[in-house]
Every structure is written in structure tokens, then in C-alpha cells.
Design goal:
With about 260 residues, the protein is mainly α. It is built from ten helices and two strands, in the order ααααααααββαα. A two-stranded antiparallel sheet has the order 1-2. The chain is elongated and about 95 Å long.
């Protein structure tokens, strides 16, 4: 398909063969065009606008048939470029939507971070069935979690098949669905706590609660202290663990059981 660009390329070559002293600058002067612009057009770095197209046809004394042929080729080329651009945009949008969905699931489903923590365990096996059995989830959940974590850059699988936790280099805390995902996560964690209450020996767990009357103005300070406690405990356990042979979940709940001053519950 001959376009205006390939037409100009062929015409420049023809003129240079006819006159060895003829140059791109001479051709640009004939077309009443900046030599630098003509060079970019010939190299395909810039396109030819409809106005410039008409100017070139006029300077080259092209007849209506040849103009129509080149114009048709230009239209097809522009349509193809628009389709390419649209395809890239759709592909990027699809990737972004997939990443958002992946981030949601990583936050919402507790076993994603459990799998990442298991990687540091002594005796960890890079085997989906072993992981599924150890965590008490399905094989398909482990496979989907692995692929999701790899896509997000949180997990790496070496050519030898070894799993590496890269989550420390990735942030997934942002996003418009974070609060929804966290609610789903907390629901799962509470269900895990109920299961532990029934099935885990008391020497391997601690579950208790306290009920007390407080000043509501102290709630923000209490929340800060709870978060600080959780972080301090997690740091202590990770630093002092000589052998990592289990993955534990730390859950602290702090909420009102009274409805005062007309507050909705």
C-alpha cells in the first residue's frame, strides 16, 4: 500500500538518480516545507496532516485519481493507527482492572499473606498441595493465590521452583476497594478465631476479652496503643524466633457494646 510517505520516498530517490546533486533540502524547497519536517515524515517519525497532504499534492501536481488513491491509503493508515491505539488502551485498562482485582483479593483473603509468611518457615515446601493441606484451604485457592501474588510482584518463583517473598518491596494499601476488602478480611479472621476456639488446644492459643466502661474521648488514643502493641509484638516474635515453624494470626478487637447518645449501631 503506497502512502504519501512512501510516495515521497520514491520520488526523492527518482530525482536523486536523475540528478546526483539533488538533495533532501532541494526536495523540501520544492515542497515549500522545512527540511527537518520532511526528514521526519520520510522516516515515519511524524504523520502528514490533511492540510499538509493537500499542499504536497498541489506542489507535486498530482491528478484527482492519484490524490484519491493516496488519500484512501492515508485514511486506512489512520484507521489502523486508531485501532492500534484503542487496542493498547483497552489492554492497559484490562491490566489495571486485573491488578485492582488482584489487590482486592490479596487484602480480602487471609491466606495470601499466610502463604508469604510460610515461605520463611523451616521445612517450607514449594508445593501447592502441601501448602493447601497445611493451611486447610483448597489446592485451587493456593494456585490462584500464587499466580495473583506473582502478578503483583509480591512472590517470585525461581527457575529451580523455589518461592521467594518479595512483598516487602510492594505496596498494595491504596485503592478505592481497600475498606471493603478489609471488612471481608476481618470477617474471615473472626471465623478463623472461632474455628481455633473449637479446634486448637488451649496451650497453642490465647483468646480472651475484657469489658469495661471508658470515656469515649480516649478511643483514638486506645486505638493508637493497640496498633503500637500489635506492631511491637509482631517485631518481637519475628526477631526472637530462632526457628520459624508456624504461622500465627494476631487479632485484637476493640468496639462498643453500648448505644449511647442516640448513636446508630
Amino acid at each position: 500500500m503506497e502512502t504519501i510517505r512512501t510516495y515521497l520516498q520514491d520520488e526523492l530517490v527518482r530525482r536523486c538518480k536523475t540528478n546526483p546533486r539533488y538533495s533532501l533540502r532541494s526536495f523540501a524547497k520544492h515542497l515549500q516545507m522545512n527540511p527537518s519536517l520532511l526528514s521526519k515524515i520520510l522516516r515515519g517519525q511524524v504523520g502528514v496532516s490533511p492540510k499538509r497532504f493537500e499542499k504536497i499534492c498541489e506542489r507535486m501536481s498530482l491528478g484527482p485519481v492519484e490524490r484519491a488513491r493516496l488519500a484512501s491509503a492515508e485514511d486506512r493508515k489512520r484507521t489502523f493507527r486508531k485501532q492500534e491505539t484503542l487496542f493498547r488502551e483497552l489492554k492497559n485498562t484490562s491490566t489495571q482492572m486485573r491488578d485492582m482485582a488482584d489487590q482486592f483479593q490479596v487484602i480480602a483473603d487471609w491466606y495470601h499473606y499466610a502463604i508469604l509468611e510460610m515461605v520463611a518457615m523451616e521445612g517450607f515446601q514449594s508445593d501447592e498441595r502441601w501448602i493447601a493441606k497445611t493451611l486447610g484451604i483448597t489446592y485451587s485457592e493456593v494456585v490462584e493465590a500464587r499466580e495473583r501474588l506473582i502478578r503483583l510482584g509480591m512472590l517470585e518463583v525461581t527457575p529451580e521452583g523455589q518461592w521467594r517473598d518479595n512483598s516487602g518491596n510492594v505496596s498494595n494499601s491504596s485503592g478505592q476497594y481497600t475498606s471493603i476488602a478489609l471488612r471481608k478480611l476481618q470477617t474471615q479472621v473472626l471465623n478463623l478465631a472461632l474455628n481455633a476456639l473449637e479446634n486448637i488446644p488451649v496451650e497453642k492459643r490465647l483468646q480472651g476479652s475484657m469489658t469495661l466502661a471508658i470515656d469515649q474521648e480516649l478511643v483514638p488514643s486506645a486505638k493508637e496503643k493497640i496498633v503500637a502493641f500489635q506492631r511491637a509484638l509482631a517485631t518481637y516474635l519475628q526477631e526472637e524466633s530462632r526457628t520459624k515453624n508456624s504461622v500465627y494470626q494476631i487479632t485484637v478487637s476493640f468496639f462498643p457494646v453500648t448505644n449511647t447518645a442516640g448513636e446508630a449501631q
